[in-house]
């Protein structure tokens, strides 16, 4: 079932803010699955160039979204898709810390920021590429930058315009995904 955004907001589902996603899901104007699918479609279109994803399993994300749709939809982040860097532990996804020595490593449990986001109803899409141990060794996205614009100038996977400010023109902040290196505008969440 693919729901459309509220007529008042002509923005595609993958461009809604976290607040707009929550309101649309709670009111029944859309579903967690529809928002997740919209984000996954945008990721599929942009990631071959951007290469921002270390781990992405669309079926797993859709299953998690469907599970959220079967709840009472009372969570503060219900239906909001998000990602975390590959240095944040997730019990159901590999966490490789950007390092070949941890290839295929699966932690036993989610990190607190992931567990709390999921408990609030958010949908984890996957893991973003990170530098090794969030340190100074460049990741594959940095290696692709030679002769190209800086990463901050590249169009993010879910945002049709590059370098969006942290606050929307309406004054509402953009949703920030958790990161061990500090908050960063989510490059993979619906509210891009």
Secondary structure class reads: alpha+beta
CATH hierarchy, class: Alpha Beta
Query: Fraction of residues in helices?
Result: 25-40%
The DSSP helix count reads 5
Largest sheet: 3 strands, mixed
Q: Could you state the order of secondary-structure elements as H and E?
A: HHEHEHEHEE
Can you tell me the CATH superfamily?
Amidase signature (AS) domain
In the CATH hierarchy, the third-tier topology is known as Amidase signature (AS) enzymes
Shape: globular
Give the strand line-up of the largest sheet: 1-3-2
Rounded to the nearest angstrom, the radius of gyration is: 16 Å
Sequence stretches where pLDDT stays below 50 over 5 or more residues:
151-167, 176-192
Gap between N and C termini: 23 Å
Oligomer: single chain
What's the architecture in CATH terms? Alpha-Beta Complex
Averaging pLDDT over every residue, what do you get? 79
When the domains are counted, the total is 1
- Beta-strand fraction estimate: 5-15%
How many individual β-strands?
5
List the helices and strands and how they pair.
Layout (H helix, E strand, L loop, with lengths): L17 H10 L4 H19 L2 E4 L1 H12 L11 E5 L26 H8 L3 E6 L11 H4 L32 E2 L6 E2 L7
């Amino acid at each position: 079932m693919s729901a459309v955004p509220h007529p008042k907001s002509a923005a595609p589902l993958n461009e809604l803010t976290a607040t707009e996603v929550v309101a649309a899901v709670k009111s029944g104007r859309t579903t967690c699955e529809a928002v997740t699918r919209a984000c996954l479609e945008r990721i599929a279109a942009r990631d071959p160039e951007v290469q921002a994803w270390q781990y992405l399993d669309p079926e797993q994300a859709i299953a998690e979204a469907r599970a959220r749709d079967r709840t009472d939809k009372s969570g503060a982040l219900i239906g909001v898709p998000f990602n975390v860097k590959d240095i944040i532990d997730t019990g159901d996804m590999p966490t490789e810390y950007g390092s070949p020595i941890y290839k295929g490593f699966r932690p036993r449990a989610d990190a607190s920021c992931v567990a709390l986001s999921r408990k609030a109803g958010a949908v984890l899409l996957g893991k973003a590429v990170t530098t090794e141990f969030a340190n100074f060794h460049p990741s594959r996205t940095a290696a692709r930058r030679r002769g190209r614009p800086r990463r901050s100038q590249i169009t993010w996977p879910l945002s049709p315009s590059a370098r969006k400010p942290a606050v929307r023109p309406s004054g509402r902040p953009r949703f920030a995904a958790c990161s061990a290196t500090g908050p960063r505008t989510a490059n993979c969440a619906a509210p891009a």
